[in-house]
Every structure is written in C-alpha cells, then in structure tokens.
Write a structure and sequence with these properties.
Elements lengths: L34 E8 L5 E7 L19 E6 L3 E5 L4 E3 L3 H4 L1 H12 L6 H35 L2 E5 L3 H4 L8 H14 L1 H15 L2 E5 L25 E3 L6 E3 H21 L11 E3 L3 H7 L1
Parallel strand pairs: 3-6, 6-7, 7-10
Antiparallel strand pairs: 1-2, 3-4, 4-5, 8-9
Length: 297
C-alpha cells in the first residue's frame, strides 16, 4: 500500500500480520515500478531488512567532454594505502582506516566474549555486540565508497584503474616478516579495493560510462609520466622519486595515476576506432581481454 504522507514508499504487511511493518526506507521505490519479489532477511547483528525487487530502467547520463572540445573526460585512479584513491590531477582521498579507528573497542568486546561461558545467554549477547560493531564499520565503509564512486562516475566519461590481484596480495606470509605482511593484509582488507572496483564496474554500466582496466604488469609506478622512461623498481616506502632521464620529480601515486590515464586512453581509442560509427564503447575494457573486444567490434 502506498503511504500518502511519504511518496515513493509504502506500508508493508506480511502474511499473518494485522498491522503494517514500521519500515525505515533507505530509498523510495521507482515511480511506476511494481514490486516483483520481496525478501525479509536478518543479519548477524540482529537487524531485519526488507529487500524489494523492482524492474527499473536507468537512463545513461549525458556524455562528459573536456572543455572546448569533443574528447571524453577521463580520469586515472590509483588505489593505495597511504591514500585510498589518488587521481591524475593530484586529488587524494584519505584512507578511512576504520578497523584501526575501532580496534580498541573491538578488542574490548572480543575479550569480553572469551570470558563468557560457552552456550550461555551472555555469550550470545557478547557475540551480537561484536556483530553490531562490525556492521557499523561495514556500513560506514560502504556508504563512503558509494559516494566516492558515484561522484567519479558522474564527473568523468572514462575511468581508468589497474587490474589488481587482490587475493594474491592477501596470501598469508610465512617466516620472517609475517607480522608486517599481516598488518599490510589488514590494511588492504580495510581499504576494500574489491568493493570499490565492483561499484565502479556496475555504475559505469548503468550510466553509460567506460571503465578501462589496465594490465597489472603495466609499470605505472616506476614509469616517468613526462618522458615515459621506465626506472628501477621502487620500495613501498618510497613516496617521491626523481627521473634519471629528464630530472622530473614525481609523487609516487600521482605519477601512477597519470600513467594509468594515458595508457587507459590509448586502449579506449584503440577500441573506439574499431567500432562502427554511432556505436558506444563497451562499459568495461580490460587490457587482458582486448583481443576479444576488438574481435567482437
């Protein structure tokens, strides 16, 4: 039933209920969209969610061009840990480090859990407190990434990222240095690179943008964005370096984002030039699958 006081929302009454549910809507339902399926779920933190499946057609956004021309606006996005996201224009988005922010509170409630007797009601309450805290961290992280990815997709026509082997980076270390590797893995999981890339992928498909995924072996960090000379390997602790060929001083992450943008636009024009006139480039161009994309074009 439509709620007359809240347009786009409704009063939900499930089977064997005489009164409608008290629902806090996260977003209004699309105008004219009839619900196809409704699911009620409960997470580990004890929260109930009502998911409504509605068929909706999302209109692509207008094409974004550079000022004074017809070249699509593109952005190189370098994912990191010192800064979560670095763009080719030098803009940096800080790493929220939510696990570090709540680590003392997490440790406190987890110690309390281990002091409770197994099978007791108090142990169940302690587990629910831990679940609520992790749910808070996940909600804050997801909301931050959602706002960031939406802004990037709205402002740019082509978005370029690097193909990251995230699961390989999270492999447990053995022997010396395993504590440092464990701390690095925690930071990578806290950054949620996989969720960020997932959101960019489906939002580009929704809004008519193109996500270009550059090959993971492309030397974006140690290649000079000015003269394109490839330097020696850089340790993770090195944040700035000087090109031995042209003398340019580079910020590690900004230089990588600039190189990613240049390589991504090369791949984009390679695909766009092979398409018939009037046909849009695909929503995802992946360097490792470029041959298949060109064949399909």
């Amino acid at each position: 039933m439509e709620d007359p006081e809240l347009p786009g929302t409704g009063r939900l009454t499930l089977a064997k209920q005489s009164e409608p549910l008290d629902v806090r809507w996260s977003r209004p339902l699309p105008v004219g969209g009839d619900p196809v399926k409704l699911s009620v779920t409960r997470d580990r933190a004890g929260r109930y969610f009502v998911s409504v499946l509605v068929e909706e057609r999302i209109e692509p956004l207008p094409t974004v061009f550079l000022p004074g021309g017809r070249e699509p606006r593109a952005v190189g996005i370098d994912l990191g840990l010192a800064a979560l996201v670095t763009l080719n224009d030098g803009t940096k988005v800080d790493h929220p480090r939510l696990l570090r922010k709540y680590e003392k509170e997490l440790a406190k409630v987890q110690r309390g859990l281990h002091r409770k007797k197994k099978g007791s009601a108090n142990r169940g309450k302690a587990r629910e407190r831990i679940a609520r805290l992790y749910a808070l961290i996940s909600d804050v992280r997801r909301d931050m990434l959602d706002q960031l990815t939406t802004r990037l997709v709205r402002e740019n026509q082509v978005l370029v990222v690097e193909d990251l082997a995230i699961m390989n980076l999270l492999r447990p270390a053995v022997g010396r240095g395993r504590r440092r590797k464990a701390a690095l893995s925690r930071s990578i999981m806290d950054a949620a690179w996989g969720e960020l890339l997932r959101q960019l992928r489906y939002k580009c498909g929704w809004y008519g943008r193109t996500l270009v995924i550059v090959d993971r072996f492309f030397p974006s960090t140690r290649r000079c964005s000015d003269c394109h000379t490839k330097g020696s390997s850089l340790d993770v602790s090195v944040r700035e370096w000087t090109c031995a060929e042209c003398g340019a001083v580079h910020d590690r992450d900004v230089n990588a984002a600039q190189n990613l943008r240049d390589e991504g636009m090369r791949l984009y024009w390679l695909v766009a030039s092979a398409l018939p006139p009037g046909r849009r480039p695909p929503s995802v161009i992946k360097a490792s699958e470029l041959a298949d994309v060109l064949l399909a074009a």
